[in-house]
Fold each of these.
Amino acid sequence: MTALLEVKSISKAFGDFYANSDISMKIMPGEIHALLGENGAGKSTLVKMMYGVLRPTAGEFHWNGQPIVMTGPAFARELGIGMVFQHFSLFEALTVGENVALSLPKDLAMSDVNQKVREVSENYGLPLDPDRAVHSLSVGERQRIEIVRCLLQDPKLLIMDEPTSVLTPQEADRLFETLEQLSSEGCSILYISHKLDEVRRLCNTATILRHGELVASCDPSKETPRSLAEMMVGTKISSVSKADEVTGDEKVRFSTSNLTVPAEDPLGTDLKAINMSVRSGEILGIAGVAGNGQDELFNALSGEVLANGSDAVVIDGVAVGKQGINQRRKLSAAFIPEERNGHAAVGDLSLSRNALLSTHATSPNQRRGLIDDGALRGYVDEVVKHFDVRASKDNANAASLSGGNLQKFAVGREMLREPGVLIVSQPTWGVDAGAAAVIRQALLDLASRGAAIVMISQDLEEIFEVSDSIAVISEGTLSEARPAKDITVEEVGLLMGGITGEGGDHVHAA
Amino acid sequence: MFMRLEARSEPSPIMTYLSPVIAVSVTVIIVGFIFVGMGIDPFVGLKTYFITPLAKLSSIYELLAKASPLVLIAVGLIFCFRANIWNIGAEGQYTLGAIFGGWVAVSFHESESMLLLPAVLLAGVVGGMLWAAIPALLKIYFKANEILTSLMLTPVAVLLLDYLVRGPLRDPDGYNMPESRFFPDAAILPTLFNSYSFHIGIFVSLLVAILATVLLYKAMLGYKVDVSGSAPRAARFGGFSSIRMTIIVFLISGACAGLAGTMEVSARTGQLIPTIPLGYGFTAIIVAFLGRRNPIGAVFAGLLLALSYMGGEEVQVKLQVPSDLTGVLQGLLLFLLLGCDTLINHRFVFSRKEIAHES
Amino acid sequence: MSLDMVDLLTNAMLGIIVAATPYMLAATGELVVERSGVLNLGVEGMMIVGAVTSYIVAFSTGSLVLGVLVGILAGAFLSLCFAFWTQTLLTNQVATGLAVTLAGIGIAGLAGRNFVGTTISPIPQLYIPYLSDIPLIGKVLFGLDPIAYFSFILIFLVIWFLWKTRAGLILRAVGDSHDSAHALGYPVVKIRYMAILFGGACAGLAGTYLTLVHTAFWAPGMTAQRGWTALALVVFASWLPWRVVLGAYLFGTVGYMQLFSQGMGVPIPSQFLSSLPYLMTIVVLVLISRDQFRAKANTPASLGKVFKPDL
C-alpha cells in the first residue's frame, strides 16, 4: 500500500540551528498518526513544512507515491491537506464567513460560503454564526472556525497541532469522535500532541521526535505512558529526592482569600474567589489545562496586576493585595514567570542587566538610581556557578542562551536571593530533562529550607513529583488543595475538566 | 540568481557601527553624481558642499550653533525611540518651546533682570513638555496611536506660532510685519569669542548629551527605558509602569525640544518669526538614528547634519544650486542608513533557485 | 436669489471641489495602503514629485495627457522605493516614509528649478452640453475637469474592490493580520507592494492635479502640507472610503474658507481654520481608539508593523 504522504530525509535549518534533521516517516491513508515530542522537539517545524508554510533545507515529500514540492499552503490545500494551527490564523476584524472564505480555493459568493458554514457547523455540532466578527468570539469558538475551515475543503489529510490544549476533556472527547468519524471515512489525520493518554487512546501509529530527530516509531496502544514518555524525554525519567512531609503546624507564609481579578484581555479568564494557603516548607502544585487562568493567577500573585482588596494576598502576615511586585519582593517573595524570553528576561540585554530586572528593589545592585555593574556581574557569576548556566560567552545576551539555560538562569536569579515565598509558573516548560531535574531539585531544596512555594504547572508528572499538596485551576476557579498522597491522577484529571464533587456527577458547563 | 535576506542568529556588532559610515559614504557619492547631472564638476561641488563651510573659524562656530538644536532634540528623541515610543512631533514641541520662551521674553521686554534668561529657558522647557504631554496622555487614556497624534500636532503648533506673530505678539512698532518685538538683552543667551554664533547654548546641548548618556547607560532610568522598549512584559515584571515610562520619555523629549526651541530664538533670531520651525524636529530623527540612538553618537551625527544645511547654503551661493539639495541629501542619508541597518540583523543570501513561496 | 449670489455660490462650490480633489485622490491611495497594513508617511513627497514631473513634461512637450501619466508614474516610482525598503529590506515604515518626504521635496525643488515662473494652460473643464447650463448646479456637477470626475470613479472602484471582491478581502485580511494571511499562503509582501504602488500612483496624480489643474504653474513647496493633510484624512475617515469623500470635502471647504475668512470679515483667525483638519483628526482618532471594540472592527491591526516571515 502506498503512503498518502511520505516524508523523505527532511531537514530544516534556521541559521546554524537544525530544528529538524533527516526525518523520514509515512502517513498511510485513513490512519490517525501521532507526532509526539516535548515542547521544542521540532514537531511544529515539521508540520509547517508539510503544509508549505516553511520550506525544507533538504529532503523531499511524496504524495501518493509521487515526488512533490510543497510550494505553499495553497498547494497543500489543493492536494487535500488541511491544518488546524495551535495558534489560530484568524482575522479579528473580519467575520466568521470571511475568515472561512479566505481559506477556500474558489471564488464563492459570500452568501454561499455562509450557507456552507451553517451546514458544516450543524452536521458536526460546531455552532457558529457566519456573520459574527471574530474579535467578539471566545477561544473555543475560534477553534471551531479553524476546524470548519478544514472540513469545508474535504481534506484527505488533516493536520492538528495540539488541538486539545485549549479544550476541556468533554470538548476533547467530542473532537475525538469527529476525528474517528473522519478516519473511518478514509481521511488520514496527523495528530500532534505531547499528551500520552490521548495518543494511546486515539492513534494507530506514533512517530516520536526528540531534539529535531526521529527517535522511534511505534504502535502507541501497545506502549505504556511511561515507555512513551521515556522515548520522548530520552533518559529514564529521573526521580528527585523529596524532603520530609510538611506537618500541619508550620506557619502559613503565603495565602490568598477571595482573590477575584477580572481578566485584562477580553479573551482571558477572570479569576473567581481564589483561596489558598501555603505553609513554610510546603510546595503547592496548581494543575490545569492551559488557558484556564494560569497567566492571570501568576500576575495576581506576583503583583503585576493588583488584587481586589488588600487582604486578598498575604505574605508572611502582611496584606499586599494592593502592593506592586517590588513591594512583594521586599517581603522576601520571588517570582518566576512561564515565558522566559520577554517576560522573565529581556533577550537583547546582557545576563547581568537581566539580573537587575528582579533584584533592583531588594539588593545593592543599584544605589540612588545608579547601577552597580560590578556587583551585578558578581551576582550573575554566582547564578551561573550554582545552576550550571551555559552561555556562549561571559555575560552573553539572554537571547543567545538555549531555553534550558535561560530557564536555569531565571530560576537561579531568584533562588540566590533565598526567597521565603516563591511563585513559579511552568518551571520546566520546554526544558531538557537534565535541566528540569536540576530545577525541580532546587525547588524541593528551597522548600526544605522553610520557603513556601506555589508552582503552577500543566505537567501532571511534575505536579505529582514535586508537590506536597495539589489544587486544580479550571475556568478561573481554584479547587481546594489536597495532600498529594491523598489525591490520584484521575481525580486531578476530573478537576481539570471542571468536574468537582465526590462522584464527578456535577459537571460545569465547559 | 536570486537574492534574499536571512536573519542572522545574533546581531552583528560590526555592522551597527559600520552602517552609518557606509550610509554617509554612499550618500556623498550619490550627491557627487547629482552635481554631475547638473553640469557641475563633482569634486568642486563636493568640496564646496562639505569642505568650504569648515574653512573659516566663524563658520565652525556657525556649524556648532546649527548642530546644537539638532543634537538637543535628538537626545530627547533617543529616550522615546529606545522606549519604543514613536514621538515624531518634535518639530511641534520645538515650536512650542520657542513660543513659550519668546512670549516670556517679549512680555518683559523692558526687563534687565538676571532672572529673565533662566525664565525664558524654563518657559521653553515647559512649553515643549506641555505639547509633548498631549500625545502621551492621549496614548495612555485613549490608546490613541502616538505616531499619528504627535504628527498631527506639529502643523497645529506651526500655525499657532504664525497666528501669534501676526496677532497678539506682533511688534506694535513693526510696520505690520509678521514678527514679534526684539527680545531685551537680558533674555539673550550670551555669545563667546566675539562671535555672533557661538552662544553658550551649545555647551548646554553638549551637557545634556553627556547627562543623557549617564542616565541611559548607568542609571535605573535608562535601564527602565530600555526594558520597556524591548520587552513590555518584562518591564512589568521588573515593576516598571508603562504609563509612567510613556509620560517620562515624552516629557524628556518635549523638554529637550522645547529647550532647543527657546535657545534658538534667544540666541539666534532674537524675536519670534513664522519661519522658526525649519524642520529641525524631523532632521533630529535622522540624527538620532545615525547616532545609533546614543547621545554621544548624536553629537557627531548632529554635526554632520548641521554641515548638510551649511553645505546647502554654500552651494546655493557659490554654484547656484538650489538649497533643496540639502533635503535630497538628508532623505538619501536616512534611506541608506535604514537600508544598511537591515544588515545588522540580516545578511544577504544568494540562491540559484527562485523561492516560490516568496512572502 | 440674485444672479450675483448664484455666481458666488457656484464659484465657491467649484473652489471647494478644486481644493478637495487632491485630498481625495491622495487619501484614497493611502487608505488602500493602510488597509493592507502599511503606513506610508511619504505622501507629501510623492505628491510633490508628481506635481513637478507632470508640470515639466506638460510644459516641455505640450501634452497634458503625457504630463498626467508621468506624474502618476513618478509618484509610483517613489513609492516603489518605499516598498523595496520597507517590504524587502524590512526597514521601519515611519522613518522610511519620512525619508521619502524629505527626499521628494528636495528632488522636486532641484528638478523644477528652471521652471519657476513659467505657466501652462491648465487641463480644461469638460462641459457636458446642456446639462452644464443648468443654473447653480450645472457647472458644479457637469462642468468639472476630468480628474475631479475620476476621483469619484476611483473612490467607488475602491469601495467595490475592498468589499465586493476576493482580492479586496485578501488585502483587508493582510492588513488585519499578516501572520495569519501568511499562514494561509497569501503573498503578504506582493500584496503590500501592489497596495503601496497604488498609493504612490494616487499621490502622484494628486500632485499632478495641483500643477495641471489647480495652479497651472510650478512653485517650490507648492504641495503646502496637503500630503500630511491627506494622511490625517485617512485617520479622520477611520479607514472607511466613503468617509474619505466626506472628509475631503470638509477639509476642502475649510481650506477654501480660510482664503476668504479675512477678506469677508469672518472673525476666526485663518490659522485656526487651517489647523481644524488636524484637530478634528485627533478627536476622531481618540474617539475610535478609546472604544477597543470599534477600533478592532476598522483599524488595520497590522498597521505599521514589520512583517518578517520565518522562511
Amino acid sequence: MPGHPLWTPLILLAAMLLLSALSAAARNQEITLQLALELSAEGNTQAAALELRRLSLMAAEPEQQAGYAWAAAHEYGRADSWETADNLLNRAEQHAPQLEMPVLLLRAESAAAQRNLAEADFYFQIIRDNPRTDADLRRYAARRGAVMLTRMGDTTAAEQALATVADEDNGLAALEHYRQGRDKKPMLGGLLGIIPGLGYAYAGEYANALRSAILNGLFIFGMVHTAQHDQWGAFAAISFFEVTWYSGSIYGGLDATNRFNRRRQQSCLDGIMGQAAYSPDFKQLPLISLQFEF
Amino acid sequence: MHPHLSGKLLCLCLLCTAGWAGGDMLQLQRELFKEQQWQDCRIECMRRLAERTDDYEARLLAALSAMHLDMDALPALAELGVNPDVPDNIRLPARFHQALLSWQTGDYQPAQQALTEVFTMTDDRELFAQAGCALAMTLRMQPRSWTPPPDITAQLQTASVLWTPELQDTTRQALQSPRTAGCCNPGRLLIGFYRTQIRPAIGDRCLMHPSCSEYTRQAFARHGFLLGIPIMADRFIREPDVIKHAQAPVIVGNKIFYADPLDNHDWWLETSPDH
C-alpha cells in the first residue's frame, strides 16, 4: 500500500538503480562509439564494424539500431566482408525503412564488389530514377550505374545513364573514346602463345614476350642437347621446366590479352567516375549523412 | 498492497531493468559464429566470459571458434563435455566436437565412446545425424578399437537415412587428421619442398605480394595442379615487369612489395556472364 513505511524507500531505491543503469548504458554507448570512430579513422575497419555492430545491439530505438547497423555494414564493406555487410543492411532496412536510399547505395556497392553487375546496376537505377533522391547522390549513382553497364559491355545504356544527370561531358567523352578503340581477342592471344612469347607481344607486352622466348629457347636447346647425348635424366628434368615455361607462354598470351582489354576498359571507367566518391559523416551517428566529392 | 507483493514487484522491476540494460548478451557472439568470423567471435566470447565465467554457451562458442582457428580447443571442449552442471544442449555438442578432435589425434576408443553417448542422448535432430554418421564412419575405419552394443548398430542402420551426401563429406573431412589431409597433392608437395628446403637457403627474395610461392599455392588450390603450373610460369615471366612499373606498392613491415594478386590474372577464367 502507498502508506506502508517500506514503500517510499523501495521506490527511491528502484528509481536510483534505474537511473544508474541508464547512465551506465549511455556512457557505455558513448565509449563504444568513440572507439569505433577511432578504429575507423586508423583504417581498422573490421574492428570498427564490430564496435558499430555492438552499438546497434545496445541502442534502444529502432532508428538508432538501423543507423549503427548501416555504419557497421559500411565498415564491413571497406574490409571487403560484403556478405556480412548484406546481413547488417537487412537489419537496417527492417528497423528504419526511411534509410532506403543509403541502404540501396550500399547494396549496390555490395553487388558490384561481388561482381553481380546487373544487380548493382538495378540498385543504382532505382536511386537515379527516384525524384526525391538528393542531387549529389543521383549524380554519383548515375556514374556508378554507367560503370556497371560499361563493364557489362552495354556502352549505349551507359551513355543513357550518364545523360540522366547534367555536366557529365568527361564521362561521355571517355565512353566515346572507349567505343572508338578495339579490344584484342583473348583466344588469338592464346593461340599465338603456342609460339613462345608471341601471345605477350600481341598484347603489347614486349619485355615479357622477349623473356618468354629466351627461356623457352634455352630450355628447348637443353632438351635437344641432352637427348642428342643420351642424358635422359637431365632431359626429364629440363623437359619438366620447359613444359612449365611453354604452358606459361600460352596462358600468358590469354592473360595478357585479357589484361590489355581490362586496362582499356579501366581507363574508360576512370574517366566516367572522375574523382567521384562518398563517405558517411560518422560524427552524426546514429544519423546517416553522406558527403559526396566530385 | 502487501509488503511481500511490493517486494516481488520491486524484484521484477529490477530484473526488467537489468534485462533491458543487458539485452540478449550472446546475440552478437551467435551472429559472428553463424557468419564464421571465428576470431571476432572468440574475442567477444572471451569478453562475455570476463563478465560471467559460468556462461557455458559462451565457453562452447569460444572453444569452437578456437577449433576453427586451428588452436587447441580440446581441453575446453573436454571440460564442457564431462561437466554434469552443463545443460545437455551445450554439453553434447561440446562432447561431439571433443570426439572429433580426439579421433584426429588418434584416440580412437574414447572418441567412439563419446560419439555413442552423443548419438544416444541428444534430442537435436541435426546433432543426432552428425553423431550417427561420424560414429558409423569411425567404426568402419577402426572396427577393432571398440565394439558398440548391438542395439547401437541397429540404431545406426535406421538413422543412416538422415546422412545426406553433404553430411558424409563434411564428416569425412572432419575426421581426417590435419597432418595427413591432402598430403598426396603434388602442388602442396612442390610448395612444401620449396618452402622447407630451398627458401631457407636463398632467403625471402620475392618482391611481389603475395610472394611467388604463396601465389602458386593459391593457384594450385583454386585451379588444381595442371592449370596451376602455367599460372605460376606466367607469374615468373611477368615478375620483372611488375617490379619495374611499381604500380601497386604495398608496405609490409618496413619493406616495399608490389601487389600482384591472383584475382587479377584468373578473373577471366570464371564463367559468370556478369564478370
